[in-house]
Give the backbone structure.
Amino acid sequence: IVGLSEVAVAVNTELNDISNAIGALDQSYFFTQFVGTDNQGLKTKSNVAGSRFNDAHDDCDQNSTCDLVCGAPGQPTCG
């Protein structure tokens, strides 16, 4: 049982590392306005306004603790 507990701690620690990597990704984007005109530039054929999204830092983006799996009370298996 002790071995399985250590495997559970190791797996959850690795999953925590993966979640930290995903949380560190910046998903911000922006694009400018697009305008399509005729050959003389007099008549607008299409117009798409620009857009922007800023990815703010969330509380759960960088989980720095490994308190994900613990044993029974009085028998800690983490940290």
Helices lie at 2-23.
